[in-house]
Design a protein that fits this description.
The protein has 252 residues and is mainly alpha-helical. It has one domain: Alpha Horseshoe (Serine Threonine Protein Phosphatase 5, Tetratricopeptide repeat). Helices cover 71% and strands 2% of the residues. It contains 15 helices and 2 strands. Strands 1-2 form a two-stranded antiparallel ribbon. Helix 10 packs antiparallel against helix 11. The two termini are 15 Å apart.
Length: 252
């Protein structure tokens, strides 16, 4: 197993709650239709809500038309923000980096128009995060950090954003797990029972070959049905492999 394969295995249990994927996985069918209607700048009618999965797909022509409209109205902050966030969320639902990447310039225009809008700042951080994760690229993760730090300057107690900031260091190649752990600790100092941060801390400590039992016990107290609990029980008598090792030897 090569280094990337081991890393993918190490993070597989946290993918469901990382940045934009947390949002995407939590959306129901009505929310999908609502986001589609946002991207189309028109109300979702009852027939569109009844079309099911196929009806929830936007064609390239539809997306291009709205992007062109955004380019033709560069000073309309509400339009840029609504389209950018809606298109980003649609891209996460489709797990499609090309759609997410097309949302980024729209969000950047919105950010120029109103640099203080918190939703846009976090949306840009999440969009770059998802592109960096899906494409296994460091540069988008670095850009995600810039926006997460801007968001935290405004709301330092936002535990979700700080946890995602920590994940950018965990997913980076090579990973900076010490910084990731430091950010997770800051999140847990703010919200000791924050389930997603506890999960991220456990995975990061395990990837670093460190004892995560304290955080596993805390996670059990928060949610004994968390899927990480059963995985932890199965591995309780084994030493987790470090993503930087192969067959017991360090990988240069």
């Amino acid at each position: 197993m090569n280094r990337n394969s081991i890393l993918i295995a190490a993070v597989s249990l946290i993918l469901g709650f990382a940045a934009g994927f947390l949002l995407a996985n939590s959306l129901n069918r009505n929310e999908i239709n609502r986001l589609m209607s946002e991207a189309k700048s028109g109300p979702a009618n009852s027939s569109s809500q009844a079309t099911g999965q196929q009806g929830a797909l936007l064609s390239d022509e539809e997306i291009n038309a709205k992007l062109k409209e955004a380019e033709q109205n560069p000073e309309n902050f509400a339009f840029q923000k609504g389209l950018g966030l809606g298109l980003y969320r649609y891209g996460t639902l489709r797990n499609d980096t090309s759609i997410i990447e097309r949302a980024i310039p729209v969000l950047e225009r919105a950010n120029v128009l109103n640099p203080d809008d918190y939703d846009v700042i976090v949306g840009l951080g999440n969009a770059y995060f998802d592109v960096g994760y899906l494409n296994k690229e460091n540069a988008p993760l670095e850009k995600a950090r810039v926006y997460y730090l801007k968001a935290l300057d405004k709301r330092p107690s936002d535990v979700d954003v700080r946890t995602d900031l920590g994940l950018t260091f965990f997913l980076y190649q090579p990973p900076d797990r010490n910084t990731a752990i430091a950010e997770f600790r800051r999140s847990l100092a703010e919200s000791p029972r924050h389930e997603r941060t506890l999960q991220a801390m456990i995975e990061t400590l395990r990837a670093d070959g460190k004892d995560a039992s304290e955080y596993m016990e805390r996670l059990k107290a928060v949610n004994p049905n968390n899927p990480l609990i059963s995985a932890g029980n199965a591995a309780s008598n084994t030493v987790p492999s470090s993503p930087d090792t192969k067959d017991g030897k360090n990988i240069p």
